[in-house]
Every structure is written in C-alpha cells, then in structure tokens.
Amino acid sequence: MPASTTSEVSPRTPRPTRADVRARVLEGAREVFADRGFAAASLDHVAAAAGFTKGAVYSNFAGKDELFLALMEDEVAARLAAVETAMAAARDLPEALSAVATELHRLDPRWQVLFLEFWQRAVREPAVRPAFVAARRAVRDRVTGVVAGFLAERGVGGWDAQSLAVVVLALVHGLAVETLSDPDAVPGDLLPRVLARLTGD
Question: Per-residue pLDDT tens for 80-127?
C-alpha cells in the first residue's frame, strides 16, 4: 500500500500574548513571594513558577521591586472592587460598614507580612522609597475615590474623603498587624464598630 504523501502536521500552540505572559508572571510572583518572602524570592523562582524563562520576567518588569509594586497594585485593585460591590449591595450605613470591614478583613495574612517586609525595605533604602511612596499615594487616591462616593451616597458629613481614607488604611494595616501575632486580640466586629463611630452612626 503506498505511503501517504500528505505529511501530518501538528497544530501549533498559540504563542502567549504579552498580556498573558504578564498575568502569569504576576501569578507566579504572588505564589513565590507568599511562600518565600520578598528577600528570599528570586526572579528565577518567579520565572519557574510562571512557566517561563527569566527573560520573560525582564521583558515585563525591570526587576524584583517593580514586580512587587505591580503585584501590590493588582491586589489593591481586586480588594477595592470587592469593597465597592459589597457597599453597593448594602441597604443602610451599618450594613455598608460591616460589608466593607468583612472584605478588608479577608486580606491574606501572608500578603500582610509581605507588604510589611517591602515597607521596611522601602523605608531603609533611599533608592526604593520614591517608587514605593508613589505607589502608596496611588493606593490612597483610589481609596479616597471609593470613600468619597461612600460619603456622598450615604450622606455622611464631618469628614473629607482623603483624611478618612488615610484613617481607614491605617486601621486596616494596624489591626492586621495585631491579628498576625495574636488573632484572638482583634474581635471580628471591631473594624465595623470603629468605622461606625468615625462616620457618626
């Protein structure tokens, strides 16, 4: 029987887009940083977790600091989206505050430790500080926007959005630090009770 003259060609695997590569690198970084901490993690570890070479990491990020800051931006965006959804579904101010507190309380403890590790690096390293400060200002601006909408929709007076945003961030981080070392020290309803007092409810 004559051999087939038509060669069998396997379909080519589509090459991942730049956006796909970036997303996978960020996911790999999230996993590696959480497991190893910022200092012990390397870009080789991140590349391996993402399924790429280190070149793919460098094609999207200048280094480990920039990669962490991008990851922080993604984490904040996801958290704020969840908070906005929870607020929109609330029927009154106490329910809105409780929903906000619940979403903020869901922060992965490993992420909080990682954030504090990088915060310490930024405070001590002058070369790192400007980028970190810029990133934190961007976070505060985004939180301020959410808070401004909350104050306007709920008719809460006595606060400017920027100041309340700073207070909320400070509360979230401070309570998270206390929870990390002694979870029983922070009641689950503490944050909503404090927010309710702050907003005059």
Answer: 888 888 877 877 777 777 777 777 777 778 888 899 999 999 999 999
CATH code, domain carrying 55: 1.10.10.60
Task: Summarize pLDDT for 138-197 with one digit per residue, the tens.
Answer: 989 988 888 888 788 777 778 888 998 898 889 888 888 888 889 888 888 888 888 888
Say if residues 198 and 106 touch (Cβ distance below 8 Å): no
Residue at which a domain ends, from 61, 81, 114: 61
State both tokens at 48: 């391996």
Number of helices (H), then strands (E), belonging to the chain: the values are 9, 0
- Quick one: 69 exposed, middle or buried, by C-beta within 10 A (0-12, 13-18, 19+)? buried
Neighbours of 173 (CB within 10 A): 14
Q: 143: closest CA among 169, 119, 173?
A: 169
Same domain, 21 and 92: no
Contact 162, 140 (CB under 8 A): yes
Per-residue DSSP letters for 86-141?
A: HHHH-SSHHHHHHHHHHHHHT--HHHHHHHHHHHHHHHH-TTTHHHHHHHHHHHHH
Maximum alpha-carbon separation in the chain: 90
